[in-house]
């Protein structure tokens, strides 16, 4: 067995590992989209090759402005024999990490979801054996149905295009005070609140920037209440990728107002499935998600190395 990166004319074969028909076509389109956006390239896509057959794969990708922070996706491995699974998987992950990092100091990240994963416990064990550390446990919520329309006349929304980048970044800093998100808290402790807010703003821009969709909310006294960042992921999926209420406005259920606003923006623009991933410690946001019509979809562990 050989572990190697692919070349351009192997994309069809790479996409077809454990996939056929429409599923293979969609994966290929998704991968080619990442190539065009500069998030990954063939030399960051690795396979386990046995003879002339691809039996496993892994994709490393990064936002263009974070070239030393790789995320892992598209991990497919044979599960017929548990011993073989661990042997192949460890080689694929460790060899891939070594080759993409070269002589640079590099961070790797993998989001392990429980949904549609019969081998969730195996992957947990595998990542730990590859020296990945669990950095955060999250719950993934999904809304596929209707959601109530906005009915809060005392709240005014202004988009990023109206308020500008400086005010939006400042709002991120304010809503992050005493955050219940483990990774946001660590970022603030490491970088300071202002730098952490700017970094997160830039990460959000790298995912999907629509200045008409990103919203700040104000009360009738023109005081900032909070913010919501709805983003498009693909043709059917959107996400509430950031949401928060400033400390002195918490406890008034404004988070539900923000959720309704963000979700309706996505629904009105044709995105039928709306995702929200939250830290397991964030009970107020969890309660608000249930209240406005989201359902728990899966659990997720964020691993880093």
From TrEMBL:
GO terms for molecular function: acyltransferase activity, transferring groups other than amino-acyl groups. Residues 172-305 form the N-acetyltransferase domain. It holds the Pfam family Acetyltransf_1. InterPro entries: Acyl_CoA_acyltransferase, GNAT_dom. Keywords: Transferase. Gene3D superfamilies: 3.40.630.30. The keyword Transferase applies. This is GNAT family N-acetyltransferase. It comes from Alkalicella caledoniensis. The lineage of its organism: Bacteria, Bacillati, Bacillota, Clostridia, Eubacteriales.
């Amino acid at each position: 067995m050989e572990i190697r990166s692919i070349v351009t004319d192997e994309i069809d074969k790479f996409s077809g590992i454990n996939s056929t028909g429409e599923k293979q076509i969609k994966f290929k389109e998704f991968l080619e989209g990442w190539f065009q956006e500069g998030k990954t390239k063939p030399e960051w896509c690795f396979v386990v090759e046995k003879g002339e057959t691809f039996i496993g794969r892994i994709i490393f990708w990064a936002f263009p402005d974070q070239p030393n922070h790789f995320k892992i996706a598209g991990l497919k491995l044979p599960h017929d024999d548990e011993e073989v699974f661990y042997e192949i998987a460890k080689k694929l992950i460790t060899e891939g990490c070594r080759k993409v990092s070269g002589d640079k100091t590099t961070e790797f990240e993998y989001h392990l979801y429980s949904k549609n994963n019969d081998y969730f416990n195996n992957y947990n064990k595998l990542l730990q054996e590859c020296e990945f550390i669990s950095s955060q446990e999250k719950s993934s919520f999904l809304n596929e149905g209707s959601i109530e329309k906005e009915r809060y006349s005392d709240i005014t929304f202004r988009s990023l295009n109206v308020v500008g980048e400086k005010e939006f970044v400042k709002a991120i800093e304010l809503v992050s005070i005493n955050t219940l998100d483990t990774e946001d808290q660590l970022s603030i402790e490491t970088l300071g609140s202002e730098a952490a807010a700017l970094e997160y703003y830039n990460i959000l821009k790298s995912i999907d920037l629509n200045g008409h969709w990103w919203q700040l909310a104000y009360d009738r006294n023109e005081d900032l209440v909070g913010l919501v960042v709805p983003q498009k992921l693909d043709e059917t999926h959107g996400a509430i990728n950031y949401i928060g209420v400033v400390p002195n406005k918490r406890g008034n259920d404004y988070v539900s107002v923000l959720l309704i606003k963000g979700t309706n923006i996505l629904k009105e623009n044709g995105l039928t499935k709306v995702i929200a991933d939250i830290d397991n410690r964030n009970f107020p946001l969890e309660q608000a998600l249930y209240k406005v019509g989201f359902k728990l979809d899966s659990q997720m562990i964020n691993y880093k190395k």
